[in-house]
Each structure stands twice: as structure tokens, then as C-alpha cells.
Specification:
By secondary structure, the chain is α/β, with parallel strands linked by helices. Helices cover 42% and strands 16% of the residues. The protein folds into 2 domains: 194 residues, Alpha-Beta Complex (inorganic pyrophosphatase (n-terminal core)); 128 residues, Diaminopimelate Epimerase, Chain A, domain 1 (Roll), CATH 3.10.310.30. Helix 4 packs across helix 5 and helix 5 runs antiparallel to helix 6. Bound molecules: manganese (II) ion.
Length: 334
Amino acid sequence: MVGHAQWSALATALAGANRVLLTGPVGPDGDSLGACLALQSVLARDGVMSDVAGLPGYRFDFMPGADAILDDNDVRPVYDAVVVLDGDRHRLSPTVEAAFSAATVRGIIDHHSSTKLDGYTHAWVEGTATSTCEMLYAAWLACDIALDPTVAELLYVGAIFDTGGFRYSNTTPDTHLMAAALLKQGIDHAALNARVLMSRRETALRVAGEIMRYATLHLDDQLLVGDVSNALAKQFGVVSGDTEGVVDSLVYVQGVEVSALLNERDSGEVKISLRSKGAVNVARVAQALSPGGGGHAKAAGASLQTDLASAKRAVIEHVSQALAALQPAEALAK
Ligand SMILES: [Mn+2]
């Protein structure tokens, strides 16, 4: 029974908590938000009330419960329990990290293979699971926790976000079985797919055009790098979510093995998103770039305290090493 024991242990710990905080990493994605809000909804059935931290981008602000999500800076200083969903404690904002460290129950529910288990009282990590939402679904199915249309919609958002609408190689027969069960709750799956995966602001379209126009090929055209400088972001008025999905478009260029999108931040930080067609494990590249980096084999990210040019050089260097490691026999023969 997948997740049965882990869910039961965590649910027991949360049932005894007065104040519970559910959170994803900074800049939560569809899987993280879906998992947080679905868990909030299921806990509330038993009278366990919780806060969710991490404001959603505009793609996700329609989700049931999204209007009550707290800004990271508005969380209480003290909670009995803090659960991190779809990411690890190393990627929390400072205020949420402080609440996490002070909590008696420190949980994680996650499917990132790079996540380490230390620092939690309740660690439920399945590095091969398709999404955090699918982990919750499987555990709730095993524990006879019923779906309702709200929970179904929230889990569906996570499922389509992490599988690209059931297209990525992480999609399994169980993912489709889950989707069938969620659709039986009467959710508007076509509208959810359009909203989460395709809908964008006009600005997002224009910025994607700029990124694609100026993206540069490296390493025998196997690496394609796009960037969003502070200047470009200001010129277009880029907001969170506007550049989502662009890095995926880059990796589908023929001959490209790895794509990278570099987002420069005001804080002097560069956020790096990486995608791989499959040969290169970009979770390892992300970890090599930065101790806080990580993710999945085909989709990962890291942040560097540096400028855009240095970040780009670092990406090229580490991807070059990863590509070189793929052909040891060839290299030896030369
Ligand atoms: Mn996920």
C-alpha cells in the first residue's frame, strides 16, 4: 500500500497539532500548490485547520482555497507543525524556514530524487513518484479517504503540471488511473489544462519571443541557453509565471540535449531552470551548480549569487562535463 504508513504517521502527528502550516518551496508550482491545498482541504474534514504559505502566480490563483494563501512574510512566527510539500526545507523563504525550524512536527511530502531526509520528524519522500499530488492520491486511496470535486480539481492540477498534461515520460498507468478517478468527480479537465498549461498573459508571449530569439547554442549545439535580464524583465513588466514553460520549449529543438533558462533577479541572484531530453541528468547538474540545487533527472533548477554572464559560464561548464561523461568509451579512443 503505497504511502499508507507514511500518511498515517503524518496524519496522526497533525491531528494533535493546533497550528499547522503547509508550504511549498519559494515560488510554488502547480504540484506544490495542488498538494498543499488538497491536504488543507482533507485535514479540515477532521477539524485540523491549517495555513498555506506561498502566494500563487496568476496561472494558479483560480484554485479552490488559493484566495486564503498567505504571503511567506505573513505566516505566524510559531506553528506546532510545518509540512513542506513538493520540495525540501532548503528551498524555503527565510520566514517560513524560521517557522519550520521552530515547529515540533517537521514534515515533508516530496518526490524529488535529490531531497535529503535529515531535519524532519516525518519524512515521506518517494524519489520515483510522478508528482506529490499523486503520492497523496495513492495514500488516500489506500486509507479510504474519499475524493470530492474540490480535492479532485486540486490533485488534477498537480498531475497535469508535473506530467505536462500526461505527456512526459514520468506518466505511468497509475497516473492515468488517478486521472480517471479525478474526472469521475466531474471536474472540468479541459478548462484546467487550458488554464494551467496554455493560458498566458500577452506579456508572457512577447517575452517568450525575446528569449527564443536571443537564445544561444553551445557545446556542439547540444545546449541551448536563454536568459531574462533585469533590464528585459523591467522593459516588459515580467511577473512570476510569465516565463514558465519557455525552458521546456527550448529543449525540444532538434539536436539539443539540455536547455537552460537564466532569470536574473534584483537581489543579485540568478535563478537557473534546466531541462534534459533524457541523456543528461540535470538534477545532478543543478546540484553541482549549487548546494541548494536539485530536482528531477529531466527537470531541475538552481540559484546562484552571481551575475548573468557568470551564471551562463557555470551552466556551460557543468553541462559540458555532464555531456563528456556520457561517452567515456569514445573519449578514451581519441
Ligand atoms: Mn512535483
